[in-house]
Amino acid sequence: MRKIILILPFFLLTILGCKAQNNQPSNFIPKGYAEFEKYFGDLNKDGLEDCVLIIKKSDTANIVTNRFDKKVDRNRRGIVVLFKNEKGYELADKNYNCFSSENEDGGVYFPPELWIKIENEKLYIHYGHGRYGYWEYTFRYQNSNFELIGYDSSSNRGPITMTETSINFLTKRKLVKENTNENAEGGDEIFKETWNNIEIDNLIKLSEIKDFDELDMYNY
Question: Which residues form the signal peptide (predicted)?
Fold first, then answer.
């Protein structure tokens, strides 16, 4: 009897629930996108170097002239998270359009700088805004998703920290630190701490965030 060997294409493996394997992270970049940045680190406590890709859409329709009469690429960016195993990589999570372009118009300010950090098996999505401060989202892989478990931000006036906010979505607690030293020059701030409980029914999933710019942490 002749044996029949059935080879399924990548998309059928995905439909059938199989975890597609590939040796190269770049092979997980969807059509119409390009690699923007790449990061490595352990995200699932197995000691292997997982991979996080920041991808960017490559649509020429989104290359526009800004208010300074300069051509800029306003294509949005996304994220692809890959777990490393003995056979290569497998898709862990994805969100193709959750980040705005690095060339967005910041008005009187420059647009914040986005970067990724992998530390202690957690995924940190960090926005740095120079002398104005920063904000950072902490995700952890659980329940088969990367879920938002923490948020931290700092509002600065040059070298002086005016307020700091930290939210723990697991304990449902929020800490706000406000500088009360009006004559602070940086490093000599005096903070008043205020703790509050927050209300949240379900943790936010990375894959379900439509736009990080519209995530309003002041709701908590």
Answer: 1-20
For 170, phi then psi, to 5°, come to -80, -45
Domain ranges of the chain: 20-109, 112-220
Taking alpha carbons only, the member of 134, 133, 122, 132 closest to residue 169 is 122
Average pLDDT, stretch 16-38? 82
pTM for the structure as a whole: 0.86
What is the DSSP code string of 26-52?
GGGSPTTEEEEEEEEE-SSSSSS-EEE
Average pLDDT value for the chain: 89
Amino acid at 194: T
* Phi (first) and psi of residue 116, to 5 degrees: -115, 145
| Distance in angstroms (rounded) separating the CA atoms of residues 50 and 37 | 14
